[in-house]
Amino acid sequence: MSFVFLIFLPLLAALFVPLLFKKVGKIHTGWFVLIVPVVLFSYYVSLLPTTIHGGNLVSEFQWIPSLDIAFIAYIDGLSLLFTLLITGIGALVVLYSIFYLDKHREQLHNFYVYLLMFMTAMLGIVQSDHLITLYLFWELTSISSFLLIGYWYTRDRSRFGALKSMMITVFGGLMMLGGFVLLSIMGGTYSIRELIPQATELVSHDFFLWALVLVLFGAFTKSAQFPFYIWLPDAMEAPTPVSAYLHSATMVKAGLYLVARLTPIFAISGTWMWLVTGVGLFTMFWGSFFALKQKDLKGILAFSTVSQLGLIMSLLGTSAAGYHIDNIAETTFKYAGFAAIFHLINHAVFKGSLFMIAGIVDHETGTRDIRKLGGLMSLMPISFTVAVIGAFSMAGLPPFGGFLSKEMFLTAMLSLTEFDLFSMDVWGILFPVVAWLGSIFTFIYSFYFVFHTFAGEHKPDQLPKPAHEAPIGMLVSPVFLALLVVVIFFIPNLIGDWLVKPAVLAMQPFLYSSPEDIKVHVEAWHGFKLEFFMTLGIFAIGFLMFWTLRKWQKSYDLFPDAISLNALYDNMMFLSDTGANRFSRIYMTGFIRSYLVYMFSFVVFIVLGTLFLTDAFAINFTNLAPIGFYEVVILIALVGSTFTILFSKSRLTGIIALGAVGYSVALFFVIFRAPDLALTQLVIETISVALFLLAFYHLPQISRKEERMRFRFGNALVAIGVGTTMTLVALSSLSQKAMPSISEFYKETVYKEAGGGNIVNVILVDYRGFDTLFEIAVLGIAGIGIITMIKLRLTKKEDQHENK
Amino acid sequence: MRTNDVMLQTATKVVTFIILMFAVHIFFAGHYTPGGGFVGGLLTTSAIVLLMLSFDIATVKKILPINYVTMTAIGLLLALATAAGAIIFDVPFFTHAFGYFDLPLFGKTSLHSAMLFDAGVYLVVVGVTMTIIQTIGEDE
């Protein structure tokens, strides 16, 4: 089966959503949408038996064969894992959204179209083998997430958050495109599968480091790594189902996917390992530290996502160490890749449920401000249970899935100290320390999230709505996810064999030949090792600090907002927006003569410069036609009327003289046997003179005194420059006969190939039909422009409003 | 302030038709002798402009109740459709076809798909120039 087309199934379904919303208003549109991820999920599950043993599937169809661009869906352990996350969590999120979004008040047709568009984009990213189509889908996620974040577009914060996320992720995406192009130049192919075997040759290439860094820009911006994470907290303005889906389970993981997918190509370089591990670990600490500053439930979760993404990123980086150590199976490094993928699954599950709980709390109490919440435990018992399970998994407590992957994370970080490449023995100790500190803060904010919301004192007077438990339908998805969290703890090795190991194989194909070679067995109890005592330390210190949270939380206010990364972003936006506006006001004077001066000086500069640089300047008078009586007469008329324009006192004289210039030129065309041009020129002159006369009454009186001497001198200089340039170009083009004249070609082919007799017209409609097509399009645009300028002109009042 | 230009108006009534006929001739002749959609369009426009100058815009609007913006759009679509039509016959975009046919009345005539494209150009040129002149002329 050509499953590549399944990528586009959500997009296809999206076409029907507006119709369903308008026509079948009684049933919530989400029910129809739900079918899509469910069908996809069940189909992709059926592919599992292939990947469990390390197999893969390829399906492709051509898109632009002449540029070697094709949609190639490549399914192996890694892409199937992500595909299942996208469709599985997608189904749960859609189910949740059915109860979260009101069908009467919300613009559901927009919402689900964006969501389905996003689903296609995500499936495309994780299944594409072709780098260019991968990039295409990558940017499609940026665009669809922009639309989703800005879904409540009447709110300022939504629009701000949407723009911010798009600016940052699209910036990263463009960088990544550069990296992809470099990769394809080095390897001679856009296919990831074909690039991987070349890794050992690629690493010595000059472009390799550039490609590596550029690709990482893409991955880091998308996965909200330091310092690009700032868009993620603002993206929380999106409706909660979107946050649960995009900003925890799927889109932000695209960066992780990219790093995992390209690990076989780049991991051979030490820089990759340094960068990915270092940035990831720092992000983990930074995110967890600032999560405690947040007052908004979704804000806490956003920072926690940043931190967790950093954690997975650092593990992916550590897994690259496998390329620098012989006999990986003997060392503790073998855990890193496994832990990364395992934690990725865990995170998608528990963070999805936590976001849904945050949404429920918001939905049922009307606020997400953690200072107003409290004591909801008895009012919302099911939500509380789910929240506890999710948060404890996040904090790394048994018996929840997160505990297992957190232990492996510590093991992997500890093993970095034993790594002696790049003199890590000096700095290596930093890695486990930062990881440990980050874990402590993770523990605290997990508790902060649950207990400051559900425990403590209930403050009904501060809540906009009286709190009560959510309807059953809204609880189904989070409860299911919470169950999964527990299930994962008890059957980690089943998950490991089915999902994690095939994915690790795709990530480290040099190390293993089949998933069975990966000898990792997950155990909840792994003896009195150092990581066990580290965990105990996390629990003890974390609990102590959580207990005293209220005393020291205020110290966060000491961090000034003015020198934060957000302020940097705001300033940059201000500069590019207002700054550019101010800058353009300097040169946009509103006088057409200023613009003409810019244009003409530019033309003179470029054309004259090129003429001299390429030594194209030559004058040869030998082959010129003799000058006859008529030419002289017309020339005198031409020059005479030109000077009349220069010195005319009234506009009317000027216009008529201008017409005379045009007619003289037309006469030249007649003499030199170009009837076509002469005809066109004559008609154009007639019409433009008429146009001038139409506009005549609106033009201000001509005034010759408004310009000072200095400007006149400048204008004269530009005018002389343009004149000289044109003369030189004309003379040179006549004198330089490097190639035979093209007119012979037209004379020969115009009848044979185009069935016409008039060369000019055949060129216009046939040989250069594209030119003409776009020219008339430009004409049309000019017409529309004039209508908008004159008919739809803003009144004074509106104008002020516009500039505010 | 409108003077009574009897001479101009009387002449215009005759001349306009001559120009229009000439425009049609020029347009159709375009593929073999000087002319084509662009010049034909401009000539048509100049005929209408002449009408506008000797009478006034409101009168001309009454005589020729044409929405020039729509005309532009139709022209663009016609040009684009001619170019895209090639795809149906599985040849590259913008491939023109031509042939000779024996038509009643006309005798042996060459028909060329470029003519359709040129007609698009003609419509756009008339549409846009008239849009511009009309909007500027009507502006207070």
From TrEMBL, chain A:
Example GO molecular function: antiporter activity
Domain named MrpA C-terminal/MbhE: residues: 712-791
Start and end residues of each NADH:quinone oxidoreductase/Mrp antiporter transmembrane domain: 128-421
Protein's membrane topology: Multi-pass membrane protein
Subcellular location: Cell membrane; Membrane
Segments forming a coiled coil: none
Protein name: Na+/H+ antiporter subunit A
Organism this protein belongs to: Planococcus donghaensis
Automatic annotation (TrEMBL), chain B:
Membrane topology: Multi-pass membrane protein
InterPro entries: CPA3_antiporter_subunitB (IPR050622), MnhB (IPR007182)
Keywords, comma-separated and alphabetical: Cell membrane, Membrane, Transmembrane, Transmembrane helix
Transmembrane helix found in the keyword field: yes
Transmembrane segments: 12-32, 38-60, 72-94, 114-133
Subcellular localization(s) per the UniProt record: Cell membrane
Pfam families, alphabetized: MnhB (PF04039)
UniProt keyword Membrane present: yes
Main location: membrane
Stretches assigned to the Na+/H+ antiporter MnhB subunit-related protein domain: 7-131
GO CC annotations on file: plasma membrane
Family: Belongs to the CPA3 antiporters (TC 2.A.63) subunit B family.
Database matches in NCBIfam families: PRK12573.1
Protein name (Swiss-Prot/TrEMBL): Na(+)/H(+) antiporter subunit B
